[in-house]
């Protein structure tokens, strides 16, 4: 429960799902064991922020089932405060992460009619929004259903009215909607955000194919004060105020890249709320993204600040 007068927090809203994951690469039909956990873009960001010392709240619907109980329990264990609506009429969604080869993964979702897809504007209380330092959403939630789309817009509008900073990560999912519908809806939502994150391919859905600096400028022209283009192993590009800046990625041998974008966003927002410079925001963002790639799982590899020095460690054994 969030108490008025406590330290400001980041509020994320969206979907979190149970996760079945192959332990070994190869065809799924030959596997005899799967790991079970959970994941979701918005809850990943909340965990990333919590590990970096920022209070975070995740708001969403979960089924009144064991999977929902596990997700709520794990979020609390990670220092995230869950504001959960337990839905007795819909199950918590599931996703299956296959590993066809050691270097590739494929994620299949079982979310139709899930509790998360039933998120509605009334599920997100005004007070929860108004007490936040920042509200973060993604382009996944509005693609789930009409009510979830309305909840996303309503949350952003109420945050803006309350003077709360807002951010959106486009996070386009082709399995959920087509590019034309996504472009129309995401353009509306980006206009309600102060900060927008997007891959260059995602930004092109809204703006057409352009250079990376032109994509950042085009996103800012829609309304946000800051635009950050995520380029994966090529690093990132940001435009904020009068500044534009490129940052190379931190080179690592990736184990699993799922969740790296969420880690990047958490790193950037943590520094943004700390009042850090744009170069430091991007440095923390790419470092957090690199850490996420070193571990299998959506959020398990998200770093704490004391972990940052490990990427440059010369001695692999600490004593």
UniProtKB/TrEMBL annotation:
Highest taxon in the source lineage: Bacteria
Classification via Gene3D superfamilies: 3.40.1190.20
UniProt keyword terms in alphabetical order: Kinase, Transferase
Every Carbohydrate kinase PfkB domain range: 9-301
InterPro entries: Carb_kinase_PfkB-like, Carboh/pur_kinase_PfkB_CS, PfkB_dom, Ribo/fructo_kinase, Ribokinase-like
Similarity annotation: Belongs to the carbohydrate kinase PfkB family.
Name recorded for this polypeptide: Sugar kinase
Source species: Leucobacter rhizosphaerae
């Amino acid at each position: 429960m969030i108490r008025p007068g406590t330290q400001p927090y980041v509020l994320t809203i969206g979907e979190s799902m149970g996760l079945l994951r192959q332990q070994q690469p190869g065809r799924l039909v030959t596997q005899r064991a799967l790991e079970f956990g959970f994941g979701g873009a918005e809850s990943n960001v909340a965990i990333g922020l919590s590990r970096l010392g920022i209070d975070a709240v995740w708001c969403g619907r979960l089924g009144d089932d064991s999977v929902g109980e596990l997700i709520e329990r794990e979020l609390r264990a990670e220092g995230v405060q869950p504001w959960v609506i337990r839905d007795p009429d819909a199950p918590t969604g599931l996703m299956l992460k296959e590993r066809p080869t050691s270097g590739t993964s494929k994620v299949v979702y079982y979310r139709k009619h899930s509790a998360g897809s039933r998120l509605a504007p009334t599920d997100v209380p005004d007070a929860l929004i108004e007490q936040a330092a920042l509200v973060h959403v993604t382009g996944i939630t509005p693609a789930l259903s009409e009510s979830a789309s309305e909840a996303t817009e309503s949350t952003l509008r109420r945050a803006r009215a309350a003077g709360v900073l807002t951010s959106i990560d486009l996070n386009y999912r082709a399995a959920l909607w087509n590019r034309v519908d996504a472009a129309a809806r995401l353009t509306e939502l980006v206009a309600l955000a102060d900060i927008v994150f997007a891959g260059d391919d995602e930004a092109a859905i809204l703006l057409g194919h352009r250079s990376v600096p032109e994509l950042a400028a085009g996103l800012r022209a829609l309304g946000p004060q800051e635009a950050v283009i995520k380029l994966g192993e090529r690093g990132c590009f940001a435009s904020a105020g009068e500044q534009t800046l490129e940052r190379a990625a931190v080179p690592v041998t990736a184990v699993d890249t799922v969740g790296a974008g969420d880690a990047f966003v958490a790193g950037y927002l943590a520094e943004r709320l700390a009042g850090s410079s744009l170069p430091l925001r991007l440095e923390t963002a790419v470092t957090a993204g690199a850490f996420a790639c070193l571990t299998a799982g959506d959020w398990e590899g998200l770093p704490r600040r004391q972990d940052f020095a490990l990427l440059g460690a010369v001695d692999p054994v600490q004593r």
